[in-house]
Amino acid sequence: MFNRLKNQLDTVTNAGPTQKNAVIRVIGDRASGKTTYMAALARFPHAASNSLIQSITSVNDDGNELISKAQNLLEQGLELEPTDLTANTEDISDYQLSITLNGQSRLKGAGGAPIQLNISCKDYAGEFFSDLLFRDRDPKLADYLEDCAQATGIMFLIDGSAQRKDAEYAAALDKFLKALSNTSQTSQLKRIAFVLTKCELPDLWIKRHQPEQLAQAKFKQVCTKLRAWKSTTKGNIDFFTTSAFGVVGTRFPEANSKQQSRDRGGVTSILQDPQHWKPFGLVSPIYWLCTGDRHQKLDEE
Amino acid sequence: MVSPLTEIHEFSTGITPEKLADGSWVSRGFTGQYMNSTLDEIPYAVERSIANKEFAVAEGSSSKWSTIIGREVGAWSVLAFVTKGRDEKGRGASFYRYFLTSSPNGLAKILAFLKEQENQGQIISFNPFEHRQVNRPHTTSAEPPKLGSDGQIYAEGSKAPDILDARRSYSPEQINQLAKSYSQRNSQPIAWAFNVEALEQPGRFQVIYPASEAASRRIQQSLSVMPAAVSSSIDEQAIKSALKNLINSAQAKSDNFQTLINSLDSVENGLNESEIQTFWTTLFNSQGADNAIRQKIYSHPMVRLLTIRAMILPETLTSLLKWLEQISDRKQQQEQVEVSLALQAQASQFLNRSPSLQYLLLTGVNNLMENVFRRKLSPESSSLLLQSPKSIWQPLLRKQLENTNHDLTLMARQKEMRVPNRSNEQLLTSQVWQTILKGLQIDSSPSATHDPKYLALGKLFSYLDAPVLAACCYQAGRGMVPPDIYEDALRYPNFNKGRPFGIYLRREKTVLETIWAILNTPLGTVVIVCFALVAMLYFFRNPLADFINKVRTPENEVQQVERESEPKVEEHISSLPQESDFLNESELFIGTSLPSDNTLLQKAKLEFGSVICPAIRSLVEEVKKTSQIDSDEEAFKRIVQTLRGPKEITEKELELLNLPTIIAKSSTPLTDKEIERWLALIASYQTREELESDGYLSNPGETYNSLKIALSQPQIDESQVPDSSENQPQGDERNLSQ
Asked: Which residue, of A248, B158, B448, B459, has the greatest Cβ tally within 10 A?
């Protein structure tokens, strides 16, 4: 039946970009920078002219709201409000973004064609990870886990400066992965990206190009749990460093953020200089979640 | 007289609060459920209204004083106090304390109660430590104050929301009174906002009192970019949530299908015709439907979204198929088609329960067939969708074929009786489809003109195992029916001995039948005799040659050797370019035909020199103006190419059009044949562009304007042009396809 359509379509000469898709859930502690990461990604300010990333566009209204948040709040030196823990997972914003990489991206099998990464991404309230997982009888937990089971990739975001919560995070992650494997729906999960955020902080920035070593040094127990999950499933894990605010200056870079508070759960900051706002490493985990391949050049921008 | 007691309930945003040393508090996170509630369960309508963000102030907006939102939701009057607080990380957040009553004039009574509380020294704001018990609502006998004539403000006009002047001072009671008068005028529930910086849904209010002039500007701006508010009887957020779940989930919950299908009726009942269209279009676009088409985003959520859109907005079914056709990677295309079919299979379970959905799907099938006729869609891809067992449109195909048969029968009866239909029987298909069906009942004589558009429909019907309809379409499209389709149609009762629906079918002869027919004529007898002679010569060739050899002279021998050394004449001829390669006109101008209406044709012929030629020359000037073409000849070629369509015009074709005579404005008139070629070319363009196909071109005129626009655009590959019905900016398409 479909052969007929195929034959007919052989005449279509417009090759277009190679498209890769992922359904992503962003999880992590409260104030770990999940919404800020998403807003910076959607806004994608001040891309270099030689950037591999040709464009990032919002596909739906939720994505547009994210861009508005970046413009009206982050760029104004304000911080984003904490994401509400909605009772119904269907009411959670689902950001649909389309990221186009130019022809130098060298994806296996793509030749020199541009690559389009289409993501559908839900950013859960931090309370899901910090509290909900420990409330066994909460009906919302099952709802959230079922929603998570739809994801092909998880972005597990941790504030890079919250190393003192390593054990807590490892316990929560363990509980999450076990609960996910017990959901009534078959989990589509293939990859977990372990993403360290707020890497504009000096001690993280200098090691940003060794994400696995950095993660291992700061979050040893989390890494062990992730590796255990990898060995017992067909899934894959990888490590990333990101900064939603980036740094200013090249010879002596300084974090482009103004610290608001600091505790054992990490730091909260606002953007210091919107004119020189240049995030770091935002697309690399998404590329990996979409393709399964790591892109060296994306790790550098 | 003692006023009756009014019960006022309350509940607040659920947080884990932490009391600080100075008595203030911070949030240590949301709990995901309401707290300090006097209700066991929050009324569903109120919960949905909150989920619809009808009480929500926009993120980042902060006001020194509490913002108050008043709103009637179903049987409840709800008043929300919005307080800005902080979490332990120092992040600002909005916290809500809701008061509600089911008493009539409830908002005024809640305001009176709160005034009473304030007079007793209570501070009304969100307070996580002000615990409440379920089933212990507040009771009050406080009556709303009567506003004196100087305190009353009046609605000016009926345009809502009325954004009040932030520099003037108003009380919440005055705002409520004003909103009430607007609500009576507009037949909308009362909804107002007091002292707001920004709102998530400003369009859903009758009156807004901004906290400042800057807030007023912000609200005005967000109103200008927001789609118009929908009727409060429609739970937009619930529909949106259901849609989001369906598009993002490979294993969609049946509840979500149910919500969506139920909403078909609620939207139908709550809105008028154009509002329904706007509501659905806006909803699908809010989830990225137009972007998916324009930017060619082929993700599973987008495939599901466009599939659902095609179910609910039947006119978009064609664009779904065209969008899927455009996927260049075969494997990916197969995958996306499967995603669409899987969703259709899931939705099919609800088909029998929803007549509204059945109606929409039937309209979709009807539109699809119309677009095959218009050549906007291939019969192949349409039949794929209509025949797949997983397709939700497949069950409606039979219905559409039945309706088509019914309408054709009725039309035939009316034609036969030469009177309009006096019975109560109605035609069942769309107006457009009826017009297409009427075109089937044309003169069947071989000399009659035929509309080749019916051939695509014939092909579609033959794929769909409807050979009688296929036969009728072929008859209308080319004046005869292919033998295999004719034979198939024979088996059906409505074939009616070769006259289905009063349409006389002529069966095309097979090659063998054609030969046999020729042989049965006197000419055929001559041919048989000639053939027999040739055969005899062939069989007796060798003995004859032997005989000739015997009498051959040496001179003859030399000539024979020379002849044998030359390539065979037949081979030589076949190696030469055939006349038909460049001379046979039937091989040229494929896809063009003269207008069928003889009167129009005559008019066009007569006015070729006086009207059509000047129009063409005027277009030449336009081309030279809008493009970088300087020479008349090049401009003419560009026009001819545009008329010709995607197939590149050949030099021979240009010659046959006698271009030099027109360019030179020569007094020598074009021959009738040359004029006809021009008219056929213009008519073919008009057919493609769905203009009146009369071969006529005048300045000004519809065809002229269409050509002017086409010529002003850069030349592109037709295969990449998106469906015009989608109104897609072509620039984007091209950029992405590069």
From this structure: B459
